Amino acid sequence: MTTSPVGMRCPECAGDRTRVHRGVGWTGTDTPYATYALLAVNVIVFLAELGSGSGAASFGGSLGREGGLFGPAISDGGEWYRIVTGGFLHANLLHLAFNMYVLYVLGTLLEPAIGTVRMAAIYAVGLLGGAFGALLLTPDALTVGASGAIFGLMAATFLIARDRGVQQIASLIGLWVVINLVFTFAVNGISVGGHLGGLLAGGLAALVVLWSERRIGGRRGAVVEAVSLLAVGALCFVGAVLAAGQATGLV
Fold first, then answer.
1. pLDDT value of residue 170
2. For residue 15, how many C-alpha atoms fall within 13 Å in the half-sphere facing its CB?
3. Residues with Cβ < 8 Å from 206, sequence gap 6 or more?
4. pTM to 2 decimal places
């Protein structure tokens, strides 16, 4: 037997190249376009925060107040857009830099493996799941940051790398998740609900992708997968709206 990048193979087929079959409408190219687009959007929004007087060490700027995740504004004011916009705002440069670094690392690993559309979908589901978790645990807190979406990508990268048999990456990301969870619970001012919600939602989205690949496949699998991911995202959004109703209006 001969050792190869995909495991042990017989000498006769060790030199053969395995043909790769890509899922219909989901893979795109090896260039992580969704990752680059998300990086650009987050940076542009942060520059807009600076222009509005936000993005400093507090949430005092107008964009932070008007777009951050805040239960009373969602439940009483009907400002449901905060569930999404809060995930693109950041408190300061360090907050942005850390999240964007992790997004770049995870995105350049995950997107070429599953495709641009799937990558964007998992990011969106993680963002909505993070908003749900944050509002469920701390509805009266003003919360900003892409951490929910980032934790969603962490969970997805771990599960998909493990399913693909890339144990080294799976182990590394698993350790990364554990370390970040320790910081989540140990450091004040971090949204525990946002991180846990994003982690669970992103993990569920990844399981949908893997289930679709293994059980269905083809065009029908792509349709079922898309509907399932939309359903998960919608449930997180509705859950966030309902969780915001717990708010007392006191910060």
1. 92
2. 2
3. 122, 155, 156, 159, 160
4. 0.85
Q: Is pLDDT above 90 for 144? A: yes
Q: How many helices and strands in the chain, by DSSP H and E?
A: 10, 2
Count other Cβ atoms within 10 Å, centred on residue 137: 17
Please report how many Cα atoms fall inside a 13 Å half-sphere around the Cα of residue 108, on the Cβ side.
Answer: 7
Options 3.90.1010.10, 1.20.1540.10, 3.40.50.300, 1.20.1640.10; CATH of 28-244 = 1.20.1540.10
User: How much is the pLDDT for 23?
Assistant: 40
Dihedral Cα 245, 92, 98, 96, nearest 10 deg = 70
- Distance between CA atoms of residues 192 and 110, nearest Å: 24
Angle 242-246-250 from CA coordinates, rounded to 5°: 135
Residues 112, 103: Cα–Cα separation, whole Å: 14
- The alpha carbons of the chain give a radius of gyration, in whole angstroms, of 19
Residue bearing tokens 């777009």: 67
Residue 63's pLDDT is 78
Per domain, the residue ranges of the chain are: 28-244
Residue-wise pLDDT for 96-126, tens only, equals 999 999 999 999 999 999 999 999 999 999 9
Exposed, middle or buried, 219 (CB in 10 Å: 0-12/13-18/19+)? exposed
Which secondary-structure segment (H or E) carries 4? strand 2-4
Phi, psi of 9 (to 5 degrees): -130, 155
Q: What is the pLDDT of residues 20-63, one digit of tens each?
A: 444 434 555 678 999 999 999 999 999 988 887 655 444 546 77
